[in-house]
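can u do me a favor
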């Protein structure tokens, strides 16, 4: 967006001065949309895809460990209750 505005201002200045050069070739090192390697849309898409993927990965790891802890705790409690029941049986 900034490059478009800079190009517009340069064209306006060149028209006032009567200079007929191509303003899309920047002489000060500012990259225009034609010289850009990746468009802004592509960069934002990659950024938001990475952030969304990272959030899903974090959520998946969190759910995995929570379910793991809950299941292990439940299994341990079941084993302890079975052990107490076996100890309280009369021998014989």
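np, heres the sequence
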């Amino acid at each position: 967006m900034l490059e478009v505005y800079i190009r517009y201002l340069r064209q306006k200045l060149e028209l006032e001065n009567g200079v007929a050069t191509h303003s899309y070739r920047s002489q000060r090192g500012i990259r225009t949309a034609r010289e850009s390697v990746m468009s802004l849309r592509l960069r934002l898409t990659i950024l938001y895809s990475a952030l969304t993927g990272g959030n899903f990965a974090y959520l998946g790891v969190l759910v995995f460990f929570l379910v793991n802890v809950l299941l292990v705790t439940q299994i341990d409690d079941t084993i302890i209750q079975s052990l107490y029941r076996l100890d309280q049986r009369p021998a014989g």
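The chain has two helices and no strands. hope that helps!!
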